[in-house]
TrEMBL record:
<dbReference type="GO" id="GO:0005829">
    <property type="term" value="C:cytosol"/>
</dbReference>
<dbReference type="GO" id="GO:0051539">
    <property type="term" value="F:4 iron, 4 sulfur cluster binding"/>
</dbReference>
<dbReference type="InterPro" id="IPR003473">
    <property type="entry name" value="NadA"/>
</dbReference>
<keyword id="KW-0662">Pyridine nucleotide biosynthesis</keyword>
<dbReference type="Pfam" id="PF02445">
    <property type="entry name" value="NadA"/>
</dbReference>
<dbReference type="GO" id="GO:0046872">
    <property type="term" value="F:metal ion binding"/>
</dbReference>
<dbReference type="GO" id="GO:0034628">
    <property type="term" value="P:'de novo' NAD+ biosynthetic process from L-aspartate"/>
</dbReference>
<dbReference type="InterPro" id="IPR036094">
    <property type="entry name" value="NadA_sf"/>
</dbReference>
<protein>
    <recommendedName>
        <fullName>quinolinate synthase</fullName>
        <ecNumber>2.5.1.72</ecNumber>
    </recommendedName>
</protein>
<keyword id="KW-0408">Iron</keyword>
<keyword id="KW-0479">Metal-binding</keyword>
<keyword id="KW-0004">4Fe-4S</keyword>
<comment type="pathway">
    <text>Cofactor biosynthesis; NAD(+) biosynthesis; quinolinate from iminoaspartate: step 1/1.</text>
</comment>
<keyword id="KW-0411">Iron-sulfur</keyword>
<keyword id="KW-0808">Transferase</keyword>
<dbReference type="GO" id="GO:0008987">
    <property type="term" value="F:quinolinate synthetase A activity"/>
</dbReference>
Amino acid sequence: VVTAIGEAKPLEYTPAVERTTAAAYDRLKNVIPDVEWPVHAPYIAAINELKRERNAILLVHNYQTPEIFHGVADYAGDSLGLAQQGAKTDASVIVLCGVRFMGETAKILSYEKTVLIPDLDAGCSLAASITGEDVRQLKKRHPGVPVVTYVNTYADVRAETDICCTSANAVKVVESLGVDRVIFLPDAYLGRYVAAQTDVDLIFWDGT
């Protein structure tokens, strides 16, 4: 709720709010102090009502706070899993409670839906360490070498990539290309692990 001058207006904890959030309270009563519940409950009730009105779902990353994770989330999990789950739903609106690249992934998999993230400035230092232009320059220095990119990167980086991987399938993806060398981006730590598991020569990104 926003006032005419753009300031948030506190919501009230009423008997109706108490009733509609009773199930959420049961999930949260052991992790949120009783004194805080009247603050969180009105927002939980309002968000859940908005979801019903707008045919929206909340996809919540595992690191969110308890009142979000247990109070308003429709699905919780890791970044790629959330985007995949969003693509399976009939919701018209996806609210991705996470960082920006997660919202981009959800939009890529659900291009026909409206995808929102609560904070456009929510970022990831690993994803921010490389840009699409950086990838283009690497490809110029290593012509013909395929690019494997960790999926938790921004869309402009993935657009310059031959194939994406997760931490779980990185070795398999690298070896699936059937080549002697690959450019592996952007996580050098994951890349070094992959290099230790395969005979493929990996070229790393110096930004991490």
